[in-house]
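Form 12-C: Joint structure prediction
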Amino acid sequence: MTVADPRPLTGEPVSLDLLNTRWMADGEPQDLFAGAAGLTRVQGLAAWLESTGLAARFRADAATLVHLLTAREALARAVADPADESARTLVDAVLEHGRIRATLTSEGPGERTEFDDPTWGPAWTAARDYLELLAGTPGRIRKCASETCVLHFHDTSRNGTRRWCSMAACGNRAKASRHYARTRER
Ligand SMILES: [Zn+2]
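Section 2 - Result
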């Protein structure tokens, strides 16, 4: 059975999407992997695997969840402070569990990922995705500009000026509070 993903922001690259399994709702921290929206932890994991397109390759089980939580912590720290050496060590420790093998396919050169233990697959995939973002456009990895919001996104706007997880949520709230501050000053 497929469980609907209850998160406010989905569809970001998988490393940031993993961070976005934590969000705020009415001032309360929510965690897709810790019983948010009345889902069990494993149902939350199943919803996440479905959302990220990983459900066909990996199982929603307790071991996979533990490894994903390890990867989420490592990535959260690395994203929050790219100079944090211990965070890099943690990301590296996740990457240890998989490797990429070069392969020649019918379409030409390809890559095949291998895991010593498939329950590390989603965690490794998220960590690897973070490396790809860093190799591409690291300056476009952003946290929502709202102080009360914990969501992250990859800014793919042409000018690189995206500030909010979503205009409908945080963007409009910021606009409304600026407006409120202005009208109070008068
Ligand atoms: Zn936000």
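Section 3 - Comments
The pocket of zinc ion is lined by residues 144, 146, 149, 151, 164-165, 169-170 (CB under 6 Å). Strands lie at 22-25, 28-31, 98-105, 108-115, 141-143, 152-154.
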